[in-house]
Amino acid sequence: MIYLDHLLKATQGTLRQASKHVHFQAFNHDTRQISPHEIFVAVRGERGNGHDHVLDAVRKGATGLLLSGQTFQQFSEQTKSVLANEEITIVLVEDTRRALQQYASAILEIWHPTVIAVTGSVGKTSTKEAIATVLSRQFTTFRSWQNYNDMLGIPLSLGRLEARHEYAVLELGCDHPGEIAALSRVVRPQIGVLTNISPVQLQYFSSLEHLAFELGTLLTSLPEGGQFFYNQEDPIIRALLEQRVHHAPSTVSCHPFLPAGYAVDEQPGVTVRWDGIQGTIKRRHTSGELERGEDEQVTVQLRSQLLGEHQFTTMLAAYQIGLSRGIYPSLVEQALTTLKPLPGRLNPLPGIRQSVLLDDTHNAAPASVKAGLQTLSALAGERSQRIAILGDMLHLGDTEAEAHRAIGREISQYVDYLITRGEWATLIAEEARQAGMDNERIIMTSTHEDAAQAARRILNTLPESDGCAVILIKGSEEIRMERVTELLMARPWEASELLVRQTPGWKKTIFRHAERPTWVEIDLNAIGSNTRHIASMVGPRTRVLVALKADAYGHGALKVARTVLQNGASMLGVATVSEAIPLRDAHITAPILVFGYVPRWQMREALRLGVSVTIYSREEAQALSQAAQALDKTVRVHVKVDTGMGRLGVRFEELPTIIELVREASQLPGLELEGIYTHFAQADAEDQSHVRMQLERFQGVLQQLEEEGLRPPIVHAANSAATLSLPEARFDMVRPGIAIYGLEPSPFVRLPEGFRPALAFKTQVSQVKWIPAGEGISYGSTYITPRPTLIAVLPVGYADGFRRSPQNWGSVLIHGQEASLLGRVCMDQCMVDVTHIPQVRMGDEVVLIGRQGEATLTAEEVANRLGTVNYEVVSELLARVPRVD
């Protein structure tokens, strides 16, 4: 509960608008999940500004606003007028983040609960919850909300603190140096708890030692008389204590999680069961404590519904702190039995086909992944198949690659099947393969849907019985692996209650971490869906080859390849041998056809890669045969016939030559005749006469080959346009390209309903400023401002594929409105007119291709402005523009 007078006094804020609302249920900084009677805090973040959403907060029931005074003065008169007519309390401060911290410190001082701060690399939230659960048996206890644990989250959480709370158990996180000290200054803990130290957030710490130093700051931040509890099984913590204990106040006492006089009973030790874990500790009496005839030891059974042997230290921490607070041991033990897995933390859920999902999707680090795998193996035992679906582990700095490979080297001892989702996670798969795991049991995917579908296929091969498989699902927060869990749940309608990140705000949040403020977003789910549409359209007897030329038309060939192969494609097409190399290096084993010219000096590389080669002359066939014999390999070939494209291929009129080439390709040593094909020049035209002429010519060639008994196994001709509009051209295989990416083949051949674009091109506003009338804009001053003009500078230019001339993009979308380009596009920047959009600020998102609000700027519209086709627009987006999905 937040009282207005406390807030004003703590922050030295100004009451800008009074109302009947003088107390509030909580702070909230996200209008997507705000509840009535909360006070909305407008926070400026790295990618947005909460002040842009104050009216939305009011509409959704906020009864108070905590705003920056400076920003409030910049509100439009219309916005101020709307606020003035609302029954809402408005408090203005210099900085809203700082105000929250001031309030947190003040309210802890006013109500002075005993503050227990929990930190560590992993397990903080579970430990916080366990300690709070134990203390609640005897004391009124506050616990920080969910995993709100940073300089914004802790103060937001403390808005729920009340005067009745005797203890406040707070989780402290850190992702950069100095954060634990700063948090400690805000909350001033009397008791500190350090769970463990392992590699996390190393992108901002140069080493694990520096991370340990940071976490150890909690010890030195404790006051005189403070208590510090630590995991005595962690060697890094033990070394840390030796170094830092002398820097703590002399009266701070240090206590291991295992209470003094207690020891873990090694027989039977810690056991993991379907209903949780249990472990035995024994208290050894000290000399003089026993009377004759008494037992020398007291056995204590610690049980909980938590899963994973590593959770025993969580129970020990809560047990030790409970005893230190004077709670009777039996009450502590009873409290521990009520502990249940938190959402996303090794939480067992019913899965499809009687499987059990071990949902561990809250986050991922090497230590927690290892713990999850051990728990998976222990729970599955010998009766169930063990399946791990692992996403990327992020924020590990320079150790990211080795951390994933280390998991891969050991994973075969824990799992029967491995499914990965994401690019870093492929390193787990690669290392598992090198360590000897069966390649048929390793599946690499790039989307949640494909990962779930891979698991479904595995389950379909298993006998359906209780616990036929246990499936561990885990990945870093940004990878959102809870979406995989939801797709595999037996009762998916329970997802909102059982999974992490299910609030409206989280549901709409998509992490986009680009390397620069200009980026391309790729919707791989759209590519998968479009592929399924094509496969359904052509039927099961017709194969689908997806064209990946030009880095999959600018969409990223590797991720697209994995996605289409999981969704109905069985073959891939590239323009050159070099385009096949990264696919094979990434262990893409599907057949690949090289459409273009393969010179003699590259034939051996083609053989090494195992790709199919296009041939159109006897000389090529003979050269390939020689290369194949030299390497003792076989190469598959496709004969190409030119039926009217005027490009590569044997002319259809040279029928004897075609027949001889086909015959020779089927007989030469080292060659395997796999296919024959042609390519249409006008399949996307309104007038279909040319494409039908080409089709007739090709059918004539095929008829002659059939009469000679030489028809190859795979006949193909249809590109996207022909696949959609000319069913008789589908033959044995189709070769869609542009349609897979959700782009129209032409104005005359449109995509059917259900296809959707996969690519969006975006940037951010880098500066906003007024330019006086009569001033020139950009190189050559080709545009002179006719009036005072508000311009936005954008960090995108022709070196990104944002065309300069002879025509340029024309306009972009900002705040859902078109903003016209002014002057010449520079190599790395351009300027747009936003005079009619005065609310534009630095950092605002700009859409160059895609949707923003109700407005859309498609690749087709851009192509019309540039005088080209959508193929060129997306393919010309340069590699320096990062792709995110």
Give the radius of gyration.
Answer: 32 Å
What is the highest CATH level, the class of the largest domain? Answer: Alpha Beta
How large is the share of residues in beta strands?
Answer: 15-25%
CATH superfamily of the largest domain: Alanine racemase
List the uncertain runs.
286-294
Main beta-sheet annotation: 10 strands, mixed
Number of domains: 6
CATH topology-level fold name of the largest domain: TIM Barrel
Question: What's a concise summary of this model?
Answer:
By secondary structure, this protein is α/β, with parallel strands linked by helices. Strands 24, 34, 35, 38, 39, 40, 41, 42, 43 and 44 form a 10-stranded mixed sheet that branches. The protein has an 8-stranded parallel β-barrel with strand order 25-26-27-28-29-31-32-33, surrounded by 5 helices. The protein has a 6-stranded parallel sheet with strand order 9-10-8-11-12-13, sandwiched between helices. The model is unreliable at 286-294 (pLDDT under 50).
Question: What does this molecule look like?
Answer:
By secondary structure, this protein is of the alpha/beta class. The chain contains 30 helices and 44 strands. It folds into six domains: 2-95, Udp-n-acetylmuramoylalanyl-d-glutamate--2,6- Diaminopimelate Ligase, Chain: A, domain 1 (3-Layer(aba) Sandwich), CATH 3.40.1390; 100-256, UDP-N-acetylmuramoyl-L-alanine:D-glutamate ligase (3-Layer(aba) Sandwich); 262-286 and 294-337, no CATH class; 347-508, Mur ligase, C-terminal domain (Protein-Tyrosine Phosphatase, Chain A, Alpha-Beta Complex); 524-741, Alanine racemase (TIM Barrel, Alpha-Beta Barrel), CATH 3.20.20.10; 759-857, Lyase, Ornithine Decarboxylase, Chain A, domain 1, CATH 2.40.37.10. Helix 11 runs antiparallel to helix 12 and helix 16 (448-460) packs parallel to helix 17 (482-488). The chain is globular and about 100 Å long.
